[in-house]
Amino acid sequence: MKSYRKELWFNVPTRRAFINITEQVRECLQESEISEGLVLVNAMHITASVFINDDESGLHHDYEVWLEKLAPHEPVNYYRHNFGEDNADAHLKRQVMGREVVVAVTNGQLDFGTWEQIFYGEFDGGRKKRVLVKIIGE
Ligand code: ZN
Question: What is the CATH number assigned to the segment(s) 2-137?
């Protein structure tokens, strides 16, 4: 069995953003030279997510509105976690949107359903953060 590991780095200038990282994961898969196996992609920070969905700007706007209703950033002092911090909402948003995805690798390709794309979800930007890509197989 072959194994591959890489960290992707992000420094998002805004507090929140959704970034399509499908091509970067595809490049990792090509580098790995694995043709049958599994790809794990996970955020290495507790205020960021990795998830799979459609690359459609209306949907991303809907996520933003929905997540702000579930866990509004303001008022900051509403949250017990915000004792010297202001990112309690980012922890909650990350929980909803998930930590990681796993994608099957078949014939050297990401074996997606129609419209599936991989996204990095940032909920507390303005600093460097990492995403782990781990690929196992043969
Ligand atoms: Zn925090």
Answer: 2.60.120.460
Domain layout of the chain by residue ranges: 2-137
What's the 37 CA to ligand 1 centre distance in angstroms?
35
Asked if residues 115 and 20 have their Cβ atoms less than 8 Å apart, the reply is no
What per-residue confidence (pLDDT) applies to 87? 98
Quote the ligand 1 centre to 77 CA distance (angstroms).
13
Which pLDDT score is estimated for 1? Answer: 95
| Distance (Å) from CA 14 to ligand 1 centroid | 17
For ligand 1, the distance from its centroid to the CA atom of residue 94, given in whole angstroms, is 11
Query: 114 to each of 4, 36, 37, 54, 69, how far by Cα in Å?
Result: 26, 20, 20, 9, 29
Q: How far is the CA of 81 from the centre of ligand 1 (A)?
A: 7
> pLDDT tens-digit profile of 74-126?
999 999 999 999 999 999 999 999 999 999 999 999 999 999 999 999 999 99
Q: Three-state DSSP class for 53?
A: strand
CA of 135 from ligand 1 middle (Å) equals 30
Q: Taking the complete model, does pTM exceed 0.70, yes or no?
A: yes
